[in-house]
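Per reviewer request, we include the raw input and output of the structure prediction for the construct analysed in the revised manuscript.
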Amino acid sequence: MRQVISVSLPENIAKKLKNYIKHSSFASISEYFKYLFEADSSNIISEKELMSAIIESRKEYKNGKTIKANSIVDLL
């Protein structure tokens, strides 16, 4: 079952979006929004996963498993 969701955009952005869809591999604006949603939601981690990573990082820090660096370049 489908549900319609309306999105209000300024005219200039709506025109750019329609032009983009016309010249892209997307069949419709809906398909593009579905793609954006899936791409965005796949990058989201849960609060539980975040807390687990924080706890693990704290354990590593306490056990001296850290690298002292003057800049990000030193880590690469």
